[in-house]
Structures are given as structure tokens and as C-alpha cells.
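Support request, please re-run this one:
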Amino acid sequence: MVTLKLTTIGTSTGVVIPKEMLARMNVGKGDVLHAIETPDGYRITPFDPDFAAKMDKAGDIMRRYRNTLDILSK
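Re-run finished. Output below.
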């Protein structure tokens, strides 16, 4: 378990994330993290769940129209 400390940044509140945690998530300064509400609290992740849903939909379309996309690629 990692303890995060809240700190004042101007008129806002920020959180300090340790280097080890950033390295494990493969993120750095300027990257975007997403807070997803779960029944147990919040989950912080670098992966956008909306983007993942869109990619799943794109995968379905590509499978359905595989032959058409193959002909169009030539």
C-alpha cells in the first residue's frame, strides 16, 4: 500500500505521487491519469476506459468487415 499526501498548489489541492509508483504505471510529468469510481472507492489508472470501449467497437467492426477492408487496402 502506498500513502499519498495532499498538498496545496495555489488555490487548489494536489497529490504527491512517489517516483516508484509513477514508474510502475509508466507515466510521467504531463501525462493524464483517470480516476474511476468503484464500489470500494476510486481507482487511478493511466488507461482511458472510454478509449478502450471505442477500440473494442472498432475491433468488432474490423472483424465484421474483414473482407471489405482487405479489398480496400489493395
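The first strand starts at residue 5 and ends at 9. Residues 49-64 form the longest helix (16 residues).
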